[in-house]
Amino acid sequence: MGYVVFFRLLATAGATNTSLVTLLIPVTAVLLGSMILGETLSVDQVVGMSLIALGLIAIDGRALNWACNLPTPGRNPARVCSRRRNISRRRKTTRG
């Protein structure tokens, strides 16, 4: 079952996003250890899980796309968003 889900995810999300899932393995292990084995979570572990979550959000790119669609007076989102669009266009053309 795990292989089926993995390869379906690989086909739909792509190799880069699929590889990001491996960064969640330590987070899952810590959370399962605290829930099932009754281990205590330290502040360091919570900070580490937060950093992993922020890193995944930054790498994924959806947060930047969301921020580009926000209407903000006095800010020119077209500058940041056009740069993001150009990067994604280059990625699409290099994939073939």
- Separation of the first and last Cα atoms: 31 Å
Count up the helices: 6
Q: Which runs of at least 5 residues are low in confidence (pLDDT < 50)? A: none
- The percent range for strand residues is under 5%
The description of the largest β-sheet is: none
Helix content estimate? over 70%
- The string of secondary-structure elements, in order, is HHHHHH
Alpha-carbon Rg, integer: 18 Å
Please state the overall shape, judged from the principal axes of the Cα atoms. Answer: flat
Total number of beta strands: 0
Query: Mean pLDDT, rounded to whole units?
Result: 77
Q: Which structural class matches the secondary elements?
A: mainly alpha
Account of the protein in words:
The chain is mostly helical and 96 residues long. The protein has six helices and no strands. It has helices spanning 2-13, 15-20, 25-36, 43-60, 62-68, 77-95. α5 packs across α6 (77-95). The two termini are 31 Å apart. The model has no long low-confidence stretch (mean pLDDT 77).
